[in-house]
Structures are given as structure tokens and as C-alpha cells.
Amino acid sequence: MNRASVVTTLRAIARYRLSEARWARVDTALGAMEEALRAGDRERLARAVRELALIGPVRISTRYGDPPRVPAPEETRERLNRLILTFGADEDEEPAQDG
Description:
Blueprint: H1 3-15, E1 17-18, H2 20-39, H3 42-54, E2 70-71, H4 74-86
Antiparallel strand pairs: 1-2
Helix pairs in contact: 1-4, 2-3, 2-4
């Protein structure tokens, strides 16, 4: 796991449209990342990044009655942006935005 791949994963997630349940999983993984960073635990950090990479959108089309897919909630976007900056995002790139 290198910093660039972590930033790439975080930026991709910021563009996802997911169900509220999937956003809750993202938030859990982001929390694990933040805790691992504070503790300096690289192994836990790597596990959290892998978990985030697996949460991505479902590849099949939705069926009638499926929960709606929505952009990241504001608090989640803010957490993503903080983590992107922590991992050294390029200064000339915009932080994750709504939509």
C-alpha cells in the first residue's frame, strides 16, 4: 500500500453513488483508517483501505424497490477530504465534491 494508491481509492469513493447502508460501511472503514493513523498501525490501516476498495458500487443495475443510490453525505465527504489531505494529495487538485 502506498500513499498514491490510498489517495486514488479515497478519491474514487468520493465520486460513488451508494445506498445509505453502503455509506454507513464507508464511514465505518473511514473511522478504522483514522484510528489506525492515530495509533500508527500500518497493518490496520492497510485492512481499512482494502475494506474501502471492496465497498464500491454494485455492478448490476438496480431493481424496482432497491434503495436509492446517493452521493456521499456531507460528513463523509469531509472525512474523505481530510484523509486525502493527510495522505498528501496533489496541491493542484480539487478536494472531493458533491455530485
